[in-house]
């Protein structure tokens, strides 16, 4: 019996040892050799007036870059300095700061390194960006639009300072390295192709990150843009993203094109404080600057989606979410 017990213990010890070696090997590979998206392209963007204006429109009114990378808290040192970054997010997976995208933060990047960061999620020094930055969606945009973003970023005045890199908890500090992937760019449809162009803008506007449920056992396509993600308003309240499929009661199926556009345009003259008072994380003031044609194209595309019957409780009870009484 003792001999058998020793053999079992020896087998268990060897098995455990092998598992440890495998885990260390995989962890080492992920840490050292990933992300792997290839070198930054040899690229020099010609900053034409048309490119700069297109980049300004995308960054300011479509993609929301300026919204994330500009502080809107008047009490903070770099508040309202466009592109200075510094917004701090404390999430379960770690602590993040929005990057400084002015020359203070990315002035030492080549155009090719900026292109890779925007579309693949890899920094100048090869670090993986956490996907709170929507590089997966920017990587699907027309390369000309990405070049326009770069041309506009180069016009920003130096501001703020460089912020700390993300402080990620284990295992997210390893998982993040597996996420960046090579860009899959698509050509921008002509605005006359209204539905296809609207789909392009929905992708560029990062609508899916907020309006498609993250935690669900259902297939992604069956809940696409059906809402329900929770966002902390930092005032004791939680707000949930809306269902923007064309369901007549759960979604926006009864909205007319004119009403859809007017919902955005009504926020065009509102201040940050007024938008904040609406208890929303939807960047209404940013999207309100989109043209009627672009908003109309988004509406036309949303009307083609399968209607999802998924009622949304806009302001759920925080205690209920946390498991309290």
Automatic annotation (TrEMBL):
<dbReference type="InterPro" id="IPR051459">
    <property type="entry name" value="Cytochrome_c-type_DH"/>
</dbReference>
<keyword id="KW-0479">Metal-binding</keyword>
<keyword id="KW-0349">Heme</keyword>
<feature type="transmembrane region" description="Helical">
    <location>
        <begin position="12"/>
        <end position="34"/>
    </location>
</feature>
<feature type="domain" description="Cytochrome c">
    <location>
        <begin position="50"/>
        <end position="157"/>
    </location>
</feature>
<keyword id="KW-1133">Transmembrane helix</keyword>
<keyword id="KW-0408">Iron</keyword>
<keyword id="KW-0472">Membrane</keyword>
<keyword id="KW-0812">Transmembrane</keyword>
<dbReference type="InterPro" id="IPR009056">
    <property type="entry name" value="Cyt_c-like_dom"/>
</dbReference>
<dbReference type="Pfam" id="PF00034">
    <property type="entry name" value="Cytochrom_C"/>
</dbReference>
<dbReference type="InterPro" id="IPR036909">
    <property type="entry name" value="Cyt_c-like_dom_sf"/>
</dbReference>
<protein>
    <submittedName>
        <fullName>C-type cytochrome</fullName>
    </submittedName>
</protein>
<feature type="domain" description="Cytochrome c">
    <location>
        <begin position="193"/>
        <end position="306"/>
    </location>
</feature>
């Amino acid at each position: 019996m003792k001999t058998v017990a020793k053999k079992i213990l020896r087998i268990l010890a060897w098995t455990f040892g092998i598992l440890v070696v495998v885990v260390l090997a995989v962890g080492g590979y992920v840490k050292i050799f990933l992300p792997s998206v290839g070198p930054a392209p040899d690229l020099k963007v010609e900053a034409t007036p048309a490119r700069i204006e297109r980049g300004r429109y995308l960054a300011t009114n479509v993609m929301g870059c300026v919204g994330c990378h500009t502080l809107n808290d008047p009490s903070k040192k770099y508040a309202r300095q466009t592109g200075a970054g510094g917004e701090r997010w404390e999430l379960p997976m770690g602590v993040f700061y929005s990057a400084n995208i002015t020359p203070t933060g990315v002035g030492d990047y080549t155009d090719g390194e900026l292109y890779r960061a925007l579309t693949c999620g890899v920094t100048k020094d090869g670090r993986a960006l956490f996907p709170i930055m929507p590089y997966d969606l920017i990587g699907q945009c027309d390369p000309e639009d990405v070049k326009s973003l770069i041309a506009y970023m180069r016009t920003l005045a130096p501001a703020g300072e460089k912020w700390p890199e993300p402080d990620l908890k284990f295992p997210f500090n390893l998982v993040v390295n597996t996420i960046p992937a090579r860009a899959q760019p698509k050509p921008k449809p002509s605005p006359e192709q209204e539905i296809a162009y609207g789909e392009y803008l929905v992708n560029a506007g990062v609508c899916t990150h907020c309006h498609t449920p993250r935690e669900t056992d259902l297939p992604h396509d069956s809940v696409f843009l059906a809402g329900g993600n929770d966002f902390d308003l930092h005032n004791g309240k939680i707000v949930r993203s809306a269902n923007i499929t064309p369901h007549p009661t759960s979604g926006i199926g009864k909205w007319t094109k004119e009403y859809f556009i007017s919902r955005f345009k009504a926020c065009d003259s509102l201040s940050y404080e007024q938008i904040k008072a609406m208890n929303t994380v939807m960047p209404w003031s940013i999207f309100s600057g989109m043209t009627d044609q672009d908003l109309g194209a988004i509406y036309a595309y949303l009307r083609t989606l399968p209607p999802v019957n998924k009622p949304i409780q806009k302001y759920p009870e925080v205690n209920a979410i946390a498991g309290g009484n």
